[in-house]
């Protein structure tokens, strides 16, 4: 497994010189806010079987309550892997001990990059990207803090309640071409911070990709994570806007997989509609007891001067993977394995 834990060793490797072709296989992507481990100072080792049985539920306890990370971790990884192949996974709210758990549960072919947001090393939450190292080779990566000082670890932006981060990654595909991926987690309280974060990363991602590609063939640019911003808010509107950036810098516009799914039509066999619940945030509550919303997204950068995706890709599959188990699994686990549902997307070369 390839792991780069520190921010002062961002490697740059030679890009693939072969462009992606129409025969390039699809790229399968998932994003999930795992919910931080509130008991991370007393970690529980992963048993040989992977799964930790849940504690017996007391008569007064809600089955949808938040259960320990040690109980939830294997269920959420199993849920991600149970629905087919994955090539890239973005996680949010991941502390260092949780990062180790996810790496162990996913297995040795999964490499990952990312840093703790508080110090650019291991302190605080990560927004890591895991990638299939059988398919991809690391080209370059970096971290950007969502603040007016994006290169300063731990910096807080605008009206945000805490430090926020984005992880930028470029990969060489064994099938040819370069794939770019960005995982982020916006602030949950600062409305202005979410709006400004979108403007910031549109420019930051563009500068990063332009540097990596050096004028070569454009590859797909995937952006995913927990934006804490519904589609009615400027955090979402700014990331999907075709308007020039107020700063005057070059930036990408991003297309939302949910609204740009290449759906079934006469002569085109495809997924009929986005699958699963619309909302991606649920909280640890029973259905109907908490306001739910769609705030977790997978997006593709639009091609310059057009409304189609960069690199000739389109969204061919979209699904929201529910985060709860009804009536108990083989070990008796019942309830939610996170307060967010996972989003799974497939992009296909036209």
CATH fold description: Deoxyribonuclease I, Chain A
- Please state the overall shape, judged from the principal axes of the Cα atoms: globular
| Helix percentage range | 10-25%
* Count of beta strands: 15
Overall mean pLDDT stands at 92
**Termini distance?**
32 Å
Elements, N to C (H/E): EEHEHEEEEEHEHEEEEEE
According to CATH, what is the class? Alpha Beta
Cα-based radius of gyration, to the nearest Å: 19 Å
What is the number of helical segments per DSSP (H or I, 4+ residues)? 4
The CATH homologous superfamily is called: Endonuclease/exonuclease/phosphatase
Uncertain stretches of 5 or more adjacent residues: 4-14
Which structural class do the helices and strands define? alpha+beta
Strand content: 15-25%
Structurally, the number of domains stands at: 1
CATH architecture: 4-Layer Sandwich
**Strand arrangement across the biggest beta sheet:** 1-4-5-3-2-15-12
Largest sheet: 7 strands, mixed
Report what the structure shows.
This is Endonuclease/exonuclease/phosphatase domain-containing protein. Residues 32-300 form the Endonuclease/exonuclease/phosphatase domain. It holds the Pfam family Exo_endo_phos. The protein is an alpha+beta fold and 350 residues long. It has one domain: Endonuclease/exonuclease/phosphatase (Deoxyribonuclease I, Chain A, 4-Layer Sandwich). The chain is built from four helices and 15 strands. It has a seven-stranded mixed β-sheet, with no helix packed on it. The protein has a six-stranded mixed β-sheet with strand order 6-7-8-9-11-10, with helices on one face. The protein has a two-stranded antiparallel ribbon with strand order 13-14. Strand 7 and strand 8 (178-185) form a beta hairpin. The model is unreliable at 4-14 (pLDDT under 50).
């Amino acid at each position: 497994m390839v792991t780069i834990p520190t921010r002062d060793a961002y490697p740059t490797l030679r890009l693939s010189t072969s462009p992606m072709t129409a025969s390039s296989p699809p790229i399968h992507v998932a994003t999930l806010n795992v919910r931080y481990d509130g008991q991370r100072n007393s970690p529980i080792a992963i048993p040989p079987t992977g799964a930790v049985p849940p504690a017996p539920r007391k008569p007064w306890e809600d089955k949808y309550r938040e259960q320990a990370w040690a109980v939830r971790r294997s269920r959420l990884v199993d849920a991600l892997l149970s629905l087919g192949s994955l090539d890239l996974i973005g996680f949010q709210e991941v502390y260092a001990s949780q990062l180790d758990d996810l790496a162990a549960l996913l297995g040795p072919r999964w490499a990952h990059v990312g840093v703790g947001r508080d110090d650019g090393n291991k302190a605080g939450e990560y927004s890591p990207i895991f990638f299939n190292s059988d398919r991809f080779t690391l080209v370059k990566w970096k971290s950007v803090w969502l603040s007016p000082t994006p290169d300063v670890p731990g910096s807080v932006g605008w009206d945000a309640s805490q430090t926020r981060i984005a992880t930028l990654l470029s990969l060489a595909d064994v099938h040819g071409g370069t794939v770019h991926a960005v995982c982020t987690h916006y602030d949950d309280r600062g409305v202005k911070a979410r709006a400004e974060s979108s403007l910031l990363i549109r420019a930051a991602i563009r500068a990063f990709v332009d540097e990596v590609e050096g004028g070569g063939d454009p590859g797909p640019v995937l952006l995913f994570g927990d934006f804490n911003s519904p589609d009615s808010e400027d955090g979402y509107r700014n990331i999907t806007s075709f308007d020039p950036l107020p700063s005057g810098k070059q930036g990408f516009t991003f297309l939302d997989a949910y609204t740009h799914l290449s759906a079934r039509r006469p002569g085109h066999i495809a997924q009929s509609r986005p699958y699963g619940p619309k909302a991606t945030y649920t909280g640890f509550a029973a259905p109907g007891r908490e306001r739910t919303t769609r705030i977790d997204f997978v997006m593709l950068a639009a091609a310059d001067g057009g409304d189609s995706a960069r690199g000739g890709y389109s969204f061919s599959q979209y699904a929201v993977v529910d985060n709860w188990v009804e009536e108990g699994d083989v070990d008796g686990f019942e309830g939610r394995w996170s307060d967010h549902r996972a989003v799974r997307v497939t992009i296909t070369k036209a």
